[in-house]
């Protein structure tokens, strides 16, 4: 793939994190997306999230399918592992990689076409199996790369650039992830980095299937009047239920919060998710409640954002399959080829 490298020289006094890396160490090549594309803002949020979490970039594996959104892993975390797969097939590649090597942090980046149209089945099975990954859908309601056809997430009644009205019901990936068992589910907006960065950080630290549906307007094909994925529409209809701060063990708690309006969730790695409640009646621990709240607010024309559900005791595919703690890629011949006697015992147990 052709790409534009960034200049190697940079200011000697750039701020570093505790690992000694600057933000530049978390960047990728120069983006070739349209100027103003929401996807570039999500890439910038990913760079900021990982820089601030002080994760070594090579500990991350970034995976994608096909689309403008799926091109973006080229534009962040250059030193990370990466696999740009086939259209809609990122989840199965992520599943296999995660089973083989559980030491990496898996970051899947996909589009609404990639995950809700051709890859809908793959998306559903990654969620229901509990693949431990941060799965980001950059949702613009269209197939941007192939010139703006409606995708399966486009709202019924939304208008295309040429005035065509979408007659089909839109698939809500947040609703799907909630009903399929994802243990961390959020919705963000590429135009709200303050909300998006901690949502990504919490998802990267979460040890279970984490889905982030990020509304990301396509300025070339879906940013006009009548579209429900335009910057103006999302700004006017965005209702955040909470604001998140992610506090990792080594950080001081610097955000003063009003007592009674903060909900704290300690994740398995000791990091704390601080949810500042904006909608007092919203409970981010209630899966069924989240499903009905989202449906109700959708009927009222709102796009609900924030951390919508989190299970502080998540389980994942490794737990379900009882895989060895060390990871399948660490097994030697003795474990992988246990011999004829072991096979005979398995066969006998099935008779
Ligand atoms: C098997 C297959 N079918 C169709 C295509 C054509 N195609 C490329 S990208 C794309 C849609 C991408 O839409 P989305 O995932 O929403 O990404 P966006 O470009 O909007 O970010 C399609 C249909 C393809 N590359 N491969
Ligand atoms: S076509 Fe749309 S989605 Fe693709 S880069 Fe341009 S603005 Fe972004
Ligand atoms: Mg799209």
UniProtKB/TrEMBL annotation:
Listed GO MF terms: oxidoreductase activity, acting on the aldehyde or oxo group of donors, iron-sulfur protein as acceptor; thiamine pyrophosphate binding
Top-rank taxon: Bacteria
GO biological process terms, semicolon-separated: cellular respiration; small molecule metabolic process
Alphabetical UniProt keywords: Oxidoreductase
Span of domain Thiamine pyrophosphate enzyme TPP-binding: 66-214
Protein name per Swiss-Prot or TrEMBL: 2-oxoglutarate ferredoxin oxidoreductase subunit beta
């Amino acid at each position: 793939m052709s790409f534009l490298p960034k200049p190697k020289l940079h200011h000697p006094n750039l701020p570093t994190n505790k690992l000694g890396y600057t933000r530049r160490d978390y960047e990728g090549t120069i983006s070739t997306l349209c100027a103003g594309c929401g996807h570039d803002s999500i890439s910038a949020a990913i760079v900021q999230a990982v820089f601030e979490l002080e994760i070594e970039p090579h500990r991350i594996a970034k995976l994608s399918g096909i689309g403008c959104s799926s091109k973006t892993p080229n534009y962040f975390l250059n030193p990370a592992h990466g696999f740009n797969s086939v259209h809609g097939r990122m989840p199965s590649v992520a599943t296999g990689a995660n089973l083989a090597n559980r030491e990496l942090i898996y970051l899947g980046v996909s589009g609404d076409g990639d995950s809700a149209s051709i890859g809908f089945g793959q998306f559903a099975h990654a969620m229901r199996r509990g693949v431990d990954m941060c799965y980001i859908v950059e949702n613009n309601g269209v197939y941007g790369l192939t010139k703006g056809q409606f995708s399966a997430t486009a709202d019924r009644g939304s208008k295309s650039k040429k005035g065509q009205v979408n007659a089909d019901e839109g698939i809500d990936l947040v609703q799907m992830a909630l009903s399929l068992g994802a243990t961390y589910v959020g919705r963000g907006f590429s135009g709200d980095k303050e909300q998006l960065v901690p949502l990504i950080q919490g998802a990267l630290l979460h040890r279970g299937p984490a889905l982030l549906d990020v509304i990301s307007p396509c300025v070339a094909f879906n940013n006009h009047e009548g579209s429900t994925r335009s910057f103006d529409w999302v700004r006017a209809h965005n209702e955040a239920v909470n604001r998140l701060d992610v506090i990792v063990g080594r950080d001081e708690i610097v955000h003063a919060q009003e007592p009674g309006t903060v909900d704290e969730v300690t994740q398995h790695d000791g990091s704390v998710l601080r949810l500042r409640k904006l909608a007092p009646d919203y409970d981010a621990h209630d899966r069924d409640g989240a499903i009905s709240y989202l449906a109700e607010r959708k009927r009222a024309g709102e796009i609900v954002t924030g951390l919508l559900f989190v299970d502080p005791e998540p389980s994942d595919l490794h737990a379900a399959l009882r895989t060895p703690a060390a990871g399948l890629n660490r097994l030697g011949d003795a474990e992988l080829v246990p011999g004829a006697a072991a096979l005979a015992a398995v066969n006998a147990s099935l008779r």
